[in-house]
Amino acid sequence: MTKTAARREALEQMITAYLEALVARDPGRLPARRDLRFTENGVAIPIGEALWQTIDGLAGYRVDYSDPDSGQAASHVAFVENGLAGLMALRLRIVDDAIAEVETILHRGAPMALTMPPVDPIWFEAEAPGSGLDRAGLAEATENYLRAVSTSDGSKVKFNPDSALRLENGTLMALGPNDRWPHALKPIEDEGSWFAAVRSTIGMDLSEQLSTGLYSFITSYDNARFPLIDVERQVVFGVWNFRRLGTVKGVTFRGKYYPHMERTQFPNENLLGQAFKYRDGTITRVQGVFLNANVYKAGTGWDRP
Q1: 108-157 per-position pLDDT tens digit
Q2: Distances from the Cα of 94 to the Cα of 23, 190, 203, angstroms
Q3: Which of 165, 172, 233 is closest to 12 using CA atoms?
Q4: What are phi and psi of 173, to 5 degrees?
Q5: Cβ-contact 65, 229 below 8 angstroms
Q6: In the prediction, which pLDDT does 65 show?
Q7: What pLDDT does 305 receive?
């Protein structure tokens, strides 16, 4: 085993150790530094509180990401809390074989967490040397995604022309024209809703979808960090806020007006923990968990020292 592979394995074992301690509700099991910093949904609290008190167990879905160069590990995990399913974005920073930072973003009350698709092996595949982006290039390309979403200009980001998929809080939001989804999609109850408009774009080129204006309620982004960049696998895990001023009421798409969701109609922001997989320098997978409609300008909890 190479040194890089050994470091990667050690990082992923730390994720397992963290989740086992969490389910046991026993932070004393963690190989943690004495000055460990812990946040849940952007708020610094003592580790052992909040979800540590209420979790029932894990729900089967888990995708790990690791950056052997920076000592960072992350995961998207399904869990059950007080009988209700949820999804977690987890980030760990490891220093001298001990956990120094824990950042968690929770989407509670997410029934999709119990019916997640099989984990896509593409996340764990190494890309051919020379075919992708370097560390700085991956960070810049990922921020271009944030720029595209927050300006409704899909020309700012490059998606893979052969295969591209976007999954948010367990819900399929975009699928490339050559891709297939393994599950039947939940029926849309209101054909005049924003959800119906988005559903009609599944199968559309992902850059074109971002240019439709369907996401125009996102008016800016802030506090972007990309703490985990895996050059070998061409994977980025980032955290940021998508902000909503609450002033964009709806969008006209294909000649029909669709009102935006109620939770976009007041000043608020989302807190996201999202992963990106690149192939040939273009985004082929996006998977994220976010806290929806958080306090306006609440930040990520890691914006200041």
Answers
A1: 998 889 999 999 999 999 999 999 999 999 999 999 999 999 999 999 99
A2: 20, 47, 40
A3: 233
A4: -110, -25
A5: no
A6: 98
A7: 64
Q: 55-76: buried (b, 16+ CB within 10 Å) or exposed (e) per residue?
A: beebbebbbbbbbbebbbbbbb
Place of tokens 């200041």: 304
**Read out DSSP for the chain?**
--HHHHHHHHHHHHHHHHHHHHHHT-GGGS-EEEEEEEEETTEE--BTBTHHHHEEEEEEEEEEEEETTTTEEEEEEEEEETTEEEEEEEEEEEETTEEEEEEEEEEES-GGGGGPPPPPGGGGPPPPTTSS--HHHHHHHHHHHHHHHHHT-GGGS-B-SS--EEEETTEEEEE-TT---SSPPPPPS-TTSHHHHHHHTTTS-HHHHHTSSTTTT--EEEEEEEEEEETTTTEEEEEEEEEE-S---EEEETTEEEEPPGGGSSSEEEEEEEEEEEETTEEEEEEEEEEEEEETT---S-S--
Q: For the chain, list the domains and their CATH numbers.
A: 3-115 (3.10.450.50), 127-295 (3.10.450.50)
**Distance between CA atoms of 147 and 150, rounded to whole angstroms?**
5
Q: In the prediction, which pLDDT does 9 show?
A: 97
Which two structure tokens, joined as six digits, stand for 97? Answer: 């074989």
Q: Could you give the CA distance from residue 142 to residue 145 in angstroms, rounded to a whole number? A: 5
What lies within 8 Å, CB to CB, of 87 at 6+ separation is 61, 76, 77, 78, 79, 106, 107, 110, 112, 113, 169, 170, 289
Mean pLDDT over residues 208-234, rounded?
98
Above pLDDT 70, what percent of the chain?
100
Ramachandran region, residue 57 (left: φ > 0; alpha: ψ -120 to 50; beta: rest):
left
pLDDT at 267 over 70: yes
